[in-house]
Write the structure tokens for this entry.
Amino acid sequence: MTAHPGAQRQVHLVAHFPGVNSTTVWSDPAAGSQIDFASFRHFAQTAERGFFDYIFLAEGLRVREHAGRIHDLDVAGRPATLAIITAMAAVTERIGVVGTLTSTFNEPVELARQLASIDHLSGGRVGWNVVTSSDAFHGGNFRRGGFLPYPERYERAEEFVRIAKHLWDAWADDALVADARRGRFADPARIARVAHRGPHFSVDTTPTVPRSPQGYPVIVQAGDSPAGRDFAAANAEVIFTRHSTFEEGLAFSTDVHARLAAAGRRSDSLLILPGATFIVGDTDADALELSREVAHAQISPQTALAWLEAIWGRDLSDLDLDGPLPIEEPAETVLRQGQTSTAIDRRAHAARLRERAEAHGLSAREVVIAETAQHTFVGAPETVADEINRYVQGGASDGFVLVPHLVPAGLDAFVDRVVPILQERGVYRTAYETPANPRPTLRSALGLPAPQPPAPLEVTAA
């Protein structure tokens, strides 16, 4: 977000409820259930107490498998994303709720209607993280199955989002929307019919849900490929990225803002929020020791083995994880549920891992920990707050999507100990409300401009 000359840029924070990964230490006695709403309520209300912009939820369409086995530390039993964000919106008042929902296996009319409904019921606090599912493993859940080739994934996502925006814009008449909110019958003649026939969708409908208080849900995008960056520059309002070092973040921000300008959009119409893990201790030394303990809990032997087998493309069950990396080269090619990777990429990756292991005297498991479980911000509260602020003031990000290692109480220490320091620095809000905006929507809380009209739909002969 662009700041006024001489003013400090404001930090944006998002709370990610983890699960579809090995970040969360489920073996910790304090870990909560994923089917007990108390976990989600505590997490959501803690984030709201810390004045976060929104709560962010991943979606797991299937429990992940590796070599025919359920992946260690994955989540089984979590309810569907739309149900959870609806429930979390009901037990909060100001914070936004954003759900990850795939554009590959959903349909525009139904998903747009569901999101618009929750947006109304929450007072305009909903966002949609648009993802493109890439594999036949997830496709097995759906009638058409299979998976889309890489270029078609974003082509379908682009068409999906464009249709959704037209559906959300169909009730653009303010008087008509006001009548609907008072329970009066709508005049069908004043509701735009949405008709479209394109490569992936054929739609002909009159939307049933009025335009929401924020226009339409905030569009979030998570993807780092060239196609993903182009999609974000054209469609997204928040990017959730993995670039968590200052130098990588700065390069990513520069690249995306160039694409944003090429798409004809304003620089303040998109926020870049990398995912970040954190460990807060009484001192920097305490936090560093805790970080080591958490990393070893996150990467169990089973998780380390699965990670290495994915790179080597072969069964490594006989590997001593406390010993060196495999001496064999990775297999030529591996097809895993519709996803392929090249031997060149994996062999180069393996060579780099061996170099790291030799340089630092690391075992196989320690290499995986070093590659996947190094926490972004580690230190005393002042250290963590100052480092986050350095990224934002330096233009490497607009803030962070924070991923705690413990659910539901893993966010508590950050809210209680780091947030007050950011507030003292004058770079973080002390309330959601302002005199000019007593009831903010998610869009206004993020400082985003009003949504722009979407590109025209295609209508071709059948």
The first strand starts at residue 12 and ends at 17. The chain has two domains: 12-283+375-445, 300-372. Confidence is low (pLDDT under 50) at residues 1-5, 335-342. The longest helix spans residues 150-169.
